[in-house]
Amino acid sequence: MNVDVMTGFGGKQAWLAVAGGEPAAVFDALGLRDLGPVSWRDGLDLAHLTDDRIAVTPPLPGARGIDWVLAAGRGLMRPGLDVVAISAALGTEVQFFATHRVTELHRWQRAAGGELVRAFGYVGQTGEVTSWFGDPDPAERDAGLPGELDEEATVLVAERDVFRVAAAWSIDPTTLTGPAPGPLRIGAYASGGPHA
After folding, report:
1. CB-count exposure of residue 43 (10 Å: 0-12, 13-18, 19+)
2. If 0-12 CB within 10 Å is exposed, 13-18 middle and 19+ buried, where does residue 181 land?
3. More confident: 150 or 6
4. Per-domain residue ranges for the chain?
5. Which of 26, 84, 136, 153 has fewest C-beta within 10 Å?
């Protein structure tokens, strides 16, 4: 396989960021069958256009000097993905991000050592905050979140804010360019959906 070029992703997509992870361990934690290496463009297209394929990156340098493995796919948006359980299984920090600009659905979660640290969910179409756990950190405050959620708080989050939080916590996947440090691997759910 020739040296591949990384391809950014993010819009209308969901992804996990796993601190210090290895692709094989991420496959196991997600219950994926490894279908092998694929070009970055083809793998990300497949993960974006199907509900049962997940693209998994090699470790990539990111925030806080940590290498992160990203797992991306539309299938991660469906109910059943348990970030806390994945964090416990892998024994590390795991982050979840999702954004879909049509409904203005924007979500992020962060778990470390099998404990939920932070969760935020928002649907701009209705202006509803669908999840709120923990206190917003500086990156979230910079993205426009209030310090606490109460009747007086105004929440207005856009797709770009999801990428800003991802950049501060791990990696903004829209910025992935240049020679790939390794192959992108594609995985398939054995039973049609996430389970962890």
Report:
1. buried
2. middle
3. 6
4. 13-189
5. 153
